[in-house]
Each structure stands twice: as C-alpha cells, then as structure tokens.
Amino acid sequence: MTTPYRADHVGSLLRPQNLIDARLAFEAGTLTADALHELEDRAILEVLALQRSTGIQILSDGEFRRTTWGDGMLDKLQGLGYDPANSTRNPHWKGGHKELANTTLPQHKVVVDKITIAEPFTAQEVRFLKANAQGPYKITIPSPTMFLGRFLPGVSDKVYPDAQAFLEDLVNIYLSEVDSLLAAGTPYIQLDSLRYIRIITDTQKAGSRTPEIQQQLKRNIEVDNRILKRAKKPGVTRGMHICRGNHRSSWYGEGSYESVAEALFDQIDTDRFLLEYDDERSGGFEPLRFVPKGKVVVLGLITSKSGKLETLDQLRRRVDEAAKYVPLENLAISPQCGFASTHLGNLLTVDEEKRKLELVAEAARAIWG
Predict the structure, then answer these.
(1) With 0-12 CB in 10 A as exposed, 13-18 as middle and 19+ as buried, what is 284?
(2) How far is CA 186 from CA 31, 44, 124, 179, 327, in A?
(3) What single string gives the DSSP state of each residue in 96-125?
(4) Mean predicted confidence (pLDDT) in 269-276
(5) What is the pLDDT of residue 3?
(6) How far apart are the C-alpha atoms of 286 and 326, rounded to whole Å?
(7) What CATH code would you report for 17-368?
(8) β-pair partners for 59
(9) Range picked from 16-30, 60-74, 241-255, 348-362 for highest mean pLDDT
(10) Contact, 330 vs 296, CB < 8 A?
(11) pLDDT of residue 43
(12) Residue 75: helix, strand or coil by DSSP?
C-alpha cells in the first residue's frame, strides 16, 4: 500500500532571481558548473525549508537544477545537438500571456547521433534530496514520448531508421534510470506527459478518435507503462501527471479528459493520477468514472498560473463533486501544475506560491483529517 499523500504538488517551484541569472551566466560561459551547482544547492535548501513550513506532505527540489521540466535528462543525454537548419518550433501557447510565452521558447535540440548517457540524469538530484529533504520527496521525470519531436527527418534518420528506433533506445535509458532511483530508495517517482492532452486536442480537431490517433494513444500508454511497471516496488509511490502545458502562466491544450479517459485511467499502471482541474479548460469530473478502484486521483484544483488564492469552501465543494465518481478516500489535492515548468516561472510571487501550498495542506487537513 502506498502513502496517500493527501497534500501533494506537481514538482516545479519558482526559482530565485539569482539562480535564474546564474543559469544564464553558465549558458553564456561566464560561470563555471561548480559555481552554478553551489548556488543550486543553497537555493534548494531554502525551497525545501519553504515547503516544510507550509505543511505540504511531499517535497521536491523545485526542479531547480533544470532549465525546463525535461532538461534534466536532455542536458545529460549524448547524441543531441541543435537543429542544424536553426528551424524554430511553431508558437503554440494559449491564454492572456501567450505572447510572452511564445517569445521565450528555449532552443530546440534534436537527435544527431546515437543516444547514450554517462550516469543517471537524476543522480545529483537524488543524492541531494536524500541527504537534505528531511521528509518524503519525489523525483519527476518526463515521459519518453515527450521527446519524439527530437527526431528530425533528414537529420536524425541518418543514425536511426525511424522515430520508433530512437524511442526504443530512449526507453532503455529510462529503465536504467528507474533502477537507479529504486536503488537509491526514492519514495515517489512521477512521470509527466503532455502527450495525452495533445491526443485530446487532435481528437477535438478531427471530431472523433481516428485510427492514427488511436494508435498514438496505444503507443503512449505502452511506453509509459514500461517505465511505471519498472518502478513498481513496495513502499514506492508512482504518479502520472497529465499536463496541459505550463510556461509563463500560459498553457498548451484544453478540453475534457473524456476522449482518453477509459483507456488512460484503466490501462496506465500507476498508483495515482495528478490531473489538472483548476478551471473550465479541464472539463468536468465525469471522466473520473473510469478510474479503477484503489487508484488515487490528485485533484489539481489550485491554479499555479496566477496568484489569486482559492478559498477553502471552493475546494471542499469541488472535492465533494469529484467524490461522486471516485471515493473520497481515493482522492487527494494539489496545485494543477508546477509553478515553474521553465526556469522563468509563472507570473506570481514566491509569497503567493507559498500561500497556495499552505492552502493545499490546510484543505487536506480539513477534508481528510
């Protein structure tokens, strides 16, 4: 039986400005890696103390060692390089701050050689958290399918026959990564994916789930299950965060979980789903009827997109609504996404972030005791 962790959070937290500046200096070649790591260590100690002060039940390093939520792996993976054609991704962010988000996209790395890795990409994160968290902690890792876009036709197919061959090598790297996390005694491993909301978006555009979309859903579930099943171990909590995009208080996708719910909730081998439910973008709770008995649903009811604070009464009402589909004992609460999936963070202050984490803990105590 895994720990229910009623007061959860997705993982990323707002970086202090000196750490943002330090990473920019490191990327510009004016700060050494050792100096950057020293600043990261100090900032992580501070953010761990902040989390403990809020009463939140699971801790993270805020993803402070990453430029974006996925870059912990990308920075250490050998075989990637910048797109030789210098092509840019199409802006896709939505919301009132989409212009800000679309003008701060990071450079895009693509596959230019066979991929390898020298050591587990979360090794430094785990060592530091194990020594300093003073409580249960989580490690977040992006789903391997998030990197399918790194396979660039005309470049990557010089070393891999197709994207599936690249993905297979990547999954094997991930399996070794999970083994290292388990060996280190990591109590909570969380897989993050935007792929399911992309399927929801594609289904909306097509009017129904086409055979191609159906195949994508099947592939994504199969890949994620290979990682999650490897992480299955007594005492280890496995989470699956279904993300809708999170950059500078903007998002990527919207729409009900209904079109993926039956397959996703029934087939994904995880202990808990972390789902975004902070506003109408996510639809209603009806798709939760497909969640199997015994799995925990972490309701992301508190927005990380702005500093506006929800009320305890609002959260109680929404949890009661969700409990019509999932028993109350199988529910938990969290912010809907991270506060800083990219190092620049969302448009709120650290004090506002802290109050939201405090509200998560307060609501968990009020609802579950």
Answers:
(1) middle
(2) 31, 17, 13, 10, 28
(3) TTHHHHHTSPPP-EEEEEEEEESS-TTHHH
(4) 97
(5) 79
(6) 10
(7) 3.20.20.210
(8) 137
(9) 348-362
(10) yes
(11) 98
(12) coil
Q: Which single residue is written with the structure tokens 């009132």?
A: 96
Q: Band the pLDDT of 88: cuts 50, 70, 90.
A: low
Residues 6+ apart with CB under 8 A from 121: 72, 73, 75, 76, 77, 177
Q: Which of 190, 195, 263, 266 is nearest to 231 (CA)?
A: 190
Q: CA 257, 56, 101: angle at the middle one, nearest 5?
A: 50
pLDDT at 252: 76
Whether residue 202 contacts residue 213, with contact meaning beta carbons closer than 8 Å, is answered with yes
Grouping H, G, I as helix, E, B as strand and the rest as coil, residue 306 is: coil
Q: Are 245 and 194 in contact (CB under 8 A)?
A: yes
Q: Tell whether the model's pLDDT for residue 263 goes beyond 60.
A: yes
Residue 364 clears pLDDT 90, i.e. is over it: yes
Q: Which amino acid appears at position 266 of this protein?
A: D
Question: Rounded CA gap, 351 and 302, in Å?
Answer: 15
- Orientation of helix 211-230 relative to helix 163-183, angle to 10°: 30
CA angle 268, 14, 362 (to 5 degrees): 70
Banded pLDDT at 79 (limits 50, 70, 90): very high
Give the residue extent of every domain in the chain.
Answer: 17-368
Q: Tokens in use for 308?
A: 């506006």
Per DSSP, the three-state class of 226 is helix
Model confidence, pTM: 0.94
Distance CA 183, CA 190 (A): 16
Residue in the block written with tokens 């005309």: 154
Alpha carbon distance 232, 216 (integer Å): 24
Write down the pLDDT at residue 87: 54
* The pLDDT value given to residue 69: 82
Q: Tell me the three state secondary structure of residue 41.
A: helix
Q: Using DSSP bridges, classify how beta strands 331-335 and 296-302 pair: parallel, antiparallel or unpaired.
A: parallel
> Would you state the structure tokens that stand for residue 195, as one six-digit string?
């792929």
pLDDT at 279 exceeding the cut of 90:
no
Burial string for 293-303 (b: 16+ CB within 10 Å, else e) reads eebbbbbbbbb
* Higher pLDDT among residues 205 and 37, named by residue: 37
